[in-house]
Amino acid sequence: MSLKSLSPYLLLLAAGGAFLVYYNGGVPGIWKDDQPISSLTSADRELVSTVADTRLGTQQAATRRTGSDGPQVDESAIYYYAAQRDWVRMRAEIERLRALYPNWVPPENPELGQSSIDPELQQFWALFSEGNYPAVRDAIAKRQQSDPDWTPPAELTSKLAEAEARLRLVNAGKAEQWATVLRVANENAGLLTCANVEALWTVAEAFVKTDEAARGLDVYKYVLDNCTNEEERVGTIEKAVGILPIAEAEQLVASNTGEAYDNARDTLVRRRVGEAAQDSSKTASATDLARMEQIVSASDVTADDAMLLAFYLYTHGDPTRAAQMFRIALDKNGGAKAGEGYVLAMHALERFLEAEPVAYEWRDSNADSMKAYLDLMTAALSKQPPLEISEAVIQRFVPVVVQQQSSFGGQALGWYAYNTGQIENAERWFIQALKWDRDSEPSAYGLAIARQRLKNTRGFAAVVNAWRSRSDRIDDLARGINLHAPRPTDSGGGVAQRQEKPVSVITDDDRELFGAAPTANGSIARSRGRDNAQVIPASSSAPAGQPAAAARRAGSRCSSASSLNDLQRLSASAAMSLGWCLMDLERPLEAARAFDAAMERSTTAKARGEAAYGKSYAYLRAGLTSKATVAASNAQVSTARQRELRIALLTQQAGAAYAAGRYADAIFSLDARSQLAPEQTDLMMLRAWAYVNLGRLDEAERIFKLVQRTGGSRDAATGLSVIHERRGLNKY
Amino acid sequence: MRYSFSTGSKQTRAAIALAIAFAAALLCFMTISSSAAVAQPAARIQSGANALISPDEWQQYRSRFITSGRVVDDANGNISHSESQGYGMLLAVLANDPATFDALWSFVRTDLLIRDDGLVAWRWDPKSQPHVTDVNNASDGDILIAYALLLGADKWGRPELAASARKIISALAQHSVSQIGGQPMLMPGVEGFGPGTRNDAPVVNPSYWIFEALPLFSKVDNGKDVWNQLTKSGLDLIDESRFGPAGIPPEWVSLRDPARPMLADGFPEEYGYNALRIPLYLLRAGIDDRKRLERFRAMWTRNGRPAAGIIDVATGRSTHMLKDPGYEIIAAALSCALDGTPIPDNLKQFSPTLYYPSTLHLLGLSLVRERYPQCL
């Protein structure tokens, strides 16, 4: 072992001098001071002896003369290291002193301690070795006060100053105060030795963080060229490849061998692939990708590695494999990040419903996961033609949309409701979406379309007045140029667009969203102009069996949110009233909850039946026909009520089937319904339009004429003209 | 050998006297009534024999609150901060204890004096890693530390302490002082109080002006005028910040409109633990103008007797009384300064309670001993 590698002090002096020169703009690469002491320049030698001399001035303890009249040699550090059993540093100190004082003879058994050594001074060193530098300062000053002639050994004060500087430097690094790090390093160049690798690492990082990567590289190289502690060397390589810019890190690893460097090369592969993953315009090299594939195919692949490759694949056009990789990451406990990535990849693949469980599971982990879930469901609900989405999936999406006040989510639910023929529900969701985002043009457009179909002329006008200046397509709607067909594709050859029974209502929502109520005429009147080539059928999705329900509508106001919070405390009859009140507010899902509570608490079979009726009616209104059926069959709903519900159900099914373009189904439902109750005009019209769309023009004509005779309707006339057009026999 | 700030050991006292005369002239020039008497600032050079804090008091304080160079705020999760370190260093000078001073200063250097701009990180938490959880500074802490360093340098003849003080002082002038409404103002911290950081910015805290330090800063900071101007801006701020029926100077003041100081948002609207130091700092700096002091005494008088308490700005009344002698001595010192009322015996005895009031207690005792020995 060379003298050099033993002696932190030589490193200290040489590197210290070098650093000063270097930092002051000297020759780069001067860190390499691994020349033996004999090759030091005369200036270096001078520095060594100067520093040594300053140490010699004042020591009182642990000093011996080298000869009868030689200089006193401060041996306290030797005893200190011996007491610490730090043999490496002890030998280094002996070598250092031997180099300085050729005539000096080292103590024979320093580990036995020195009887003459100052016991108080030993205490100082003990405090020092504990790292309690304030206590050392305290002790030194106290002794100086009590013994004015006493001067602390230079060895102690210089080591103390150095230790404080090292601590300050490292603390400044932890606080990312890089200028301080470099300043302290510059002022305490003696710090920068292998004995203080952490300080060297901090300085290197400070250089990198202050755009001096080349100097940072030099510091890391210095450690690797000069320091022998294997653990610290490995640590240095790890730090360097993590902190240096890629180019400098590559320089450091280049042409080096060994496990640590192999690991470092893998780190660089990860960094390069990771960088490319952030930026789809960058491509990772084939070699890097091959290596990443190797890494992730190992059985002990980490979630991080799988995710890294997955993100790269995702941003580089391979969502299929990305999804597989994210799945692996998920299985390796990759957590929310892996979940989010998986959802994004599956979203890109339009495999919405497959990904929904994962998206739902991780939604609350962080904002990104929530967004991924909302986006996924929004896309699923907006898909054309509509996907078959299970009720459970929608049911658990709704509260999340409400809780997140997601305008996009509300809008998507609106379109889904619209596309599945639940126009009133659609209207409600579009209103909600607009409340969450007053500037959401798509929500306003959806609302306008829904109201147009509901024939809610005043409501339609309210949207139009507020939005036509901001939205061309809403303006087009108002002027009757319905070029952008509403979202549902009319599978019946574009003939039919159903319009609901007119309900001209200005609600509180309208006043809140659109201000003062518009007049009922105005823009809307024009939408019925002769140039309107559209066929406007009429029908109703409003359940025909409503009278019983209508009778219950007390018209009273209720605030759903607060009342629902108190649901647990409500009596059966109060819950019942709340249910009907919520129905009035068109909040059927909340109403269903209230009816549910009423059912639970009702003591008589009749009351339970009433509540069950309400609940099933509420589900019906929410478009949840299967739930409605379940609710109706579960309780002792009276026969009359059963019949009422069945009628309502069939009415709704007919409307939904028609809206979805399933005209034969619509006829089937209407036929079934006619067994229970007479068909009123709006349903006759629905049947007629279904016949038109099925090409059964004779049957359609018969109904239109019947309607015309029994009171007439412009829609019936329109229907007849359409039939004549179809037959090429336009009589008008 | 004795260190002097600039002109050598023989002239030190004369130089300080000059600085004081300058400060006095400045104060007379300002809005204070002509009777303003600016005596020699507290904490001047004391020989070890008659330290302003007795060895016994200091021993009690140290053993209770100082560990490994750290002044522990025991009412606040045992954290330390630049303020506690600065108070500790100042008290160590007043107690003539260079050993403890060195320990405290060592801790400041290794753990807090790490900011790139040369100021002191304000908060150190033993329970977190890294310990500095917020690298922002607190300018009163910076001032206290620099002030203690200057006094220590002078008292013990250690120029290296003054050199360190000068660095902090010039960093303060550069980074933590802003021109607001044509006057320099002491920003509470480099981050978080200036324009753009909050709606009611700039926001300042009148109790961050440690007036006794400012003439010394002016002297060592190449005679920069900003430190003397800060004395004026601080006194103006205190005089003009009057809120509620009792005309209370609050803790945190918005100077969005410099001509109309407002209560800053989001802070308790009270004369509280921050602001109650203002009269102590005024007295310690020898700014003992009667009219100004009477305002503070009135706030802390109940039934004709001194009564320390937290005062609600809206009502002008105490929300609760402060019974610790560390607070009571401020009320007592005001009565002493204004009417020569003797300090009650129970306040002359120091017995540590919690870090903050105990610190104020020793500062108050040293103030009375130096300036108003007749009240003892």
Automatic annotation (TrEMBL), chain A:
Gene3D superfamilies: Tetratricopeptide repeat domain. This is Tetratricopeptide (TPR) repeat protein. Residues 537-549 have a biased composition (Low complexity). It comes from the Bacteria. Residues 482-503, 517-549 are annotated as: Disordered. InterPro entries: TPR-like_helical_dom_sf, TPR_rpt.
